[in-house]
Amino acid sequence: MDLAEIPAEPPVRPAPPAARELFGADCDTEIEGSRVVAYCHNSYPETDLVRLHVECDRWWDVDGDGAAVAVGPAGRVELTSRCWKEVRTAWVSHQRP
């Protein structure tokens, strides 16, 4: 065995995975025709500012970004929006206050 092939130090251990962040309300978004409803429930101890974003399918239809709504610990909130015609997509963003 060649001593030059033996590493001077033991191999580096990989870093442990980061702990899961306990933040962010759980939101279910429903699209029905031109209307969007998002139901959010915050099961964590920190307030979450949720905001509904809607992208309309027609080029002339105005996309919408709703106002931020605070969802406190164990709180629930319903967010609504709409397009004049069809909805292309909708999502909820989360932010710390």
How would the global form be characterised? Answer: elongated
Number of strands: 7
Residues in helices, as a percent range? under 10%
Largest sheet entry: 4 strands, antiparallel
Q: Write down the Rg.
A: 23 Å
Pattern of helices and strands: EEEEEEE
Strand content: over 45%
Total count of helical runs of at least 4 residues? 0
Distance between the termini: 61 Å
Helix/strand class: mainly beta
| Poorly predicted parts | none
Mean pLDDT over all positions: 89
Task: Walk me through the structure.
- This protein starts with 25 loop residues before the first strand and ends with a strand.
- The chain has strands spanning 26-32, 35-41, 48-56, 64-65, 69-71, 76-82, 87-95.
- The protein is elongated.
- Strands 3, 4, 5 and 7 form a 4-stranded antiparallel sheet that branches.
- The protein is mainly beta and 97 residues long.
- It is 0% helix and 45% strand.
Q: How does the SSE layout of this entry go?
A:
Layout: E1 26-32, E2 35-41, E3 48-56, E4 64-65, E5 69-71, E6 76-82, E7 87-95
Antiparallel strand pairs: 1-2, 2-6, 3-4, 3-5, 3-7
Summarize this structure briefly:
The protein is an all-beta fold and about 100 residues long. The chain is about 0% helix and about 45% strand. It has strands at about 25-30, 35-40, 50-55, 65, 70, 75-80, 85-95.
Characteristic key phrases:
elongated; mainly beta
